[in-house]
Amino acid sequence: MKYEAVIGLEIHAQLLTDTKIFCGCSTSFGREPNTQTCPVCIGMPGVLPVLNRKAVEFAIMAGLAMNCKIAPYSRFARKNYFYPDLPKGYQISQYELPICQQGYLDIEVDGVRRRVGITRIHMEEDAGKNIHEKDSSLVDLNRAGVPLLEIVTEPDIRTPREAAVFMRKLRTILRYLGICDGNMEQGSLRCDANVSVRPEGSEGFGTKTEIKNINSFRFVEKALEYEINRQIKLISQGESVVQETRLWDSSAGKTYSMRSKEEAHDYRYFPEPDLVPLEIPREWVDEIKGRLPELPDEKKTRFIKEYSLPEYDAEVLTEERTVAEWFEEAVRLGGNPKKVSNWMMTELLRLLNEHEKEITDIPLTPSHLVKILDLIEKGTISGTIGKKVFSEVFLTGKDPEVVVKEKGLLQITDTSELEKMVDEVLKNNSKEVERYKKGETKLLGFFVGQVMKASRGKANPKIVNELLKQKLSES
Fold it and tell me: Average pLDDT, whole number, for the chain?
């Protein structure tokens, strides 16, 4: 029997507010443990929460970007459970009246578009962090009270790959909006996945398990693949899937049981008595909507139409808002869109990845790239040398013309000097010369490469091509 998976995601996104959701403590990451706390976020008796307006604004922005309805009236609830990093013994969240509902995102996997429904987006406070050492466990409450969005999808996802694509798209949107940095390693974007399997073509749902706190796109795929196969194996052997919460062990490559899965009644939700209901005027929603940035799908479509870019180029360039803006600035300064795109996708993104940098953290500017392209166009330097200059400017921020002069990288255009190099290459590759004369004209590229190598990339390739053709045509 063939089975299909039914997957729904619950994604927690930390919001980039300066202060926590119910108090004035800083949300900065990486400070000394328990230094960003106050009586409110450590749950001292008698304290009262005060809602952060910026967190509400960010929630509305996320809802609008994900095609949700923004509730004019919502309220907070107490979610009661005990955990060492939850100092109050309950979490302030939203339950039956969330701020955003009934949205969707469209994703594309292997050329097929799918619409994934978003059931709800609600606000809540984060818990602290448990730090487990060899013979003890410690609690850091700096994270307690940091504002979170919980984004809950419909069970519309069918494959691990779709889940990872959805996560990437969601992260891109949150970063475009500037409301979450999407750093999964630091825990500012976390994913819980609910998964069950059923016979292909059936409408009912199987027994689901929840996989908690998956912290990378690759692990989302791996964890779901393992869990789907585990459930299919159990059912095929006549056993039952147990509804439970499981954890993903990335080193072992498998999930393992953590606890039985809670139901909503286990949390004993009730309206938060210390916060009044939240009423959101339509005028405020319209004002926020009016200043939303151009989102990735819209920008991709515009790049294809306005700059005549291939779909793949537009997809890569619009994954990050800062990269897209860098591209447009280079084009505005006179760069050819396709050439700028090529250099960004090959040289720039490679160097960013190699040095683990964001595009906002480097001294290389769009103006620098345009100058390098201009130097190549004028024949001052070759494309090969251009790459060396690009790498140097990426590291130092020096003017490309200064780098060319300092490194002695001016292109060799002296025909007599190049002719000597060409003669030497042909002399050292006599067998290839004979093959060329017998019809293997593709070897011309080989000879050009050898001359470029001999000149350390400084030879003018146009002149080299002409000299080679001339000499190879001689009897």
Answer: 92
